Structure formats: C-alpha cells, structure tokens
Amino acid sequence: MEIRKLIGGAVFGATTFAAAIASAQEVNVYSLRQEFLVEPLFEKFTEQTGVKVNVIFAEKGLVERIKQEGANSPADILMTVDISRIQQAVDAGVTEAVSNDVINGNIPAHLRDPEGHWFALTQRGRAIYASKDRVAEGEITSYEDLADPKWEGKICTRSGTHVYNVALFASMIAVHGEEKAKEWLEGLKNNLARKPQGNDRAQVKAIKEGVCDLAIGNTYYYGKMLDNDEQRPWAESVNIVFPNQADRGMSMNISGMSLIKDGPNRENAVKLMEFLTGDVAQQIYAEVNYEYPVKPGVEWAENVKSWGTFKADELPLSDIARLSPDAIKLVDTVGYNE
Description:
Keywords: Signal. This is Iron ABC transporter substrate-binding protein. Belongs to the bacterial solute-binding protein 1 family. The protein is α+β, with helices and mostly antiparallel strands and about 350 residues long. It folds into 2 domains: about 5-125 and about 255-305, Periplasmic binding protein-like II (D-Maltodextrin-Binding Protein, domain 2), CATH 3.40.190; about 125-250 and about 310-335, D-Maltodextrin-Binding Protein, domain 2. It has 14 helices and 11 strands. Strands 1, 2, 3, 4, 5, 6, 7, 8, 9, 10 and 11 form an 11-stranded mixed β-sheet that branches. Helix 2 (about 35-50) links the parallel strand 2 and strand 3 (about 50-55). The radius of gyration is 20 Å and the shape is globular. The two termini are about 30 Å apart.
C-alpha cells in the first residue's frame, strides 16, 4: 500500500504532491525505505535548513513510476535498498550523475558509483546465524564453509533469487570466478534442510525450531528480533557469525540514494544528499534500523556494538551490481530454488 506524506504537514495525494514543487524551499523524495526510518532524518534536515521534504513512500514500483512521469516527474531523489535495486534505477535511465566534494568525501569509493549515479547511506552485513546448541563457536567461519558436506541437511535460506542472496552470490563470483562460484552454490544447495522459503527472520526461527543449524541473514535482523517479544527467543537461540574475518571480510550491502534526472529542485536535492551523508544523519539513520554508518568515524549504535566488531569486505559494490545477472543465472543453473 502506498503512502503519500508531506513531512511537517498533512497526508496528501499525487496532485497536491505535484503542486508542492512550486516552492524553492522544498525537495521531493520517492522512498522505498520505510517511513519510520527516514522521517527523523528529514525533520532534522528541515530544522537545520528550512527546506521542506515532500515524500512518497511505496513498497515497490517507484522507478517505473518515475519513468512513466517522464519530464513531468516531481521526484528529486530516489531512496532504496540493495545494490541491485539501485542499479536498476540507473539502468532505467532515470538518474543523474552527481560530482560533489562533500558527498564523495563522506562516502568511501567502494560504496558509491564511480560515475556518481548512486551513493550508499547505510550498510548491513550478510551474516551467518548458527545454533548455540548445535554449532560450536568457531566451527563455521566463512561463506565457503557453507558448502562443506558436513552441513548436509542443516542450512536454511530464503530464495536464491532474492536480492540479498543475489548480492552475496555475485560477491562469490567476483572473488572466485564463475566456475568456482557455481561449485560452491551447488554445495550450498546440497546442504539445504528444506526448499528456500520465507524471509531472513524465518530462517532464524527455523534454527530455533530445530529445522536447521545454520542460516544466512542480514545483520540488522538480529536487532529487530531482539526487540520483538515473539521473536526474541529466535535470536537468543543463535550466535551471529561474521564470515571471512581471516581474509576478505563479511559481504556488505547497502541502502542508498540517487539524484533523479531533471528533478525540479536540484540544488535542494544535492543539499539533502550532503546532509544524509554527514555525521548527524549517519548517526540517526544507523541507530533506528541497527545498520552500520557508511561515513568512516561515525559511532555505531550501542546495541550494534555489543554484537562485536568485524572486517568488512571492501569489494566495490559496482562489481556486485555488474555481476548480479550472472548470479541469477547460476541460481537457475544449479536449480537452487527447486
């Protein structure tokens, strides 16, 4: 269900939203990120700059909407999650390159498009969740270990074609080459306890219920489960394992933003992009969803710190985006979802 909202004002429809672009002190955001995640940021931005942020929230379809609106689109910025989805906007031709010293200075090179079409805002790791009762600490330490026949029938994952897994599989192609990645994916498939299904939290629930001993999931779900009375026992049944600490580090994915081509409020849009990559916004953004800041030096949330530190893979996310179609082909080739 789509929500249309004006930060600091009333809920409004598409006509009102389009009319809102008249003021020079506004900026228009299309967001696939949930309302509770971004409203605190926009309210702080308005407080500091006087620039209103008009937002349309949706679960999907915003890139298609921008394409349909064409030159009449009121959108200035697109906010979304996962590098594959971000790249889809670029490939659709709706984004505009930004060359900005402030933004580039805040965001490390591997977390932004080399041509400036997208920039990371937060990071999340693709972790391994391991049963406290059935998997000894240190028994699994890498993504490569997931293909070890010792784990036959003991691993749960969501669909292999979900963007979170596609990004991980693409990273394996980048590191090992397509043939070795295929062998690894076949090994992982052979170790599945059940047909891929559900979301990341459902895999941890399955560990609690004894369906499997290991699962793959994003780091921030650990915090979300601990905050939920029903799901807390699931999280408490597992250890969160940061893979590949002896070599390349844990595979990372992002939420991110792009400037929309020919947006009506470009100056304010770039100003908002600068703000979102700065210290204040990075601190807020990371805390509300248990994610990791992208700007170096920004403190992690206290509860996130309690999970431990880790080495992050610094493979350029542009490589992940480029290899994602190959990863999807591998999923089909090995019949991962069957």
